[in-house]
Structure formats: C-alpha cells, structure tokens
Amino acid sequence: MQSNTQKITFVLPKATVSLIQHFKREKHLKSASEVIVLAIKKMEKEEEIKKWSNGFELAAKDKQFQKEQFEIAEWGVSDGID
To answer: Which pTM does this prediction carry?
Structure first.
C-alpha cells in the first residue's frame, strides 16, 4: 500500500519554528506537520473564498448577467433546488 505522504526537509527561521511549536501546543496537535498542513488548508480555503468574492464582484458589475438572472428568476426556474 502506497502512502499519500512525503517526507521533506526545509529551513525555517527560528521565530517561525517557535510559532509552529506554539500552535502545536495551543491546538493540541500531534506534530509540526499538522500545524503546517492546517495552515496551508486555511490559505487554500481563503484563496477559494477570494475567487468566489471576485466572481460576485464581477457579476454585480455585469448588467447583461444581471438582466439574464432576473429573467430566469421571473420564469421561475429553480435550477433543481427544492
């Protein structure tokens, strides 16, 4: 069975290592790797939210899109949502 993890080595400033250890203790995590994985997942989620937010901003400025959405709403199209 193949593992979905990979061991890597990298150099970090001492202050960063101290922060990782702090969060490991504070969050009762098993390893420094868990701290890093959680931080990356949070950044990934923030990036996804930013993409959606940018999309909403673009849609809010797009008069043609708004017109089409209003027409769909008037027709009573529910897009399969009950």
So the answer is: 0.68
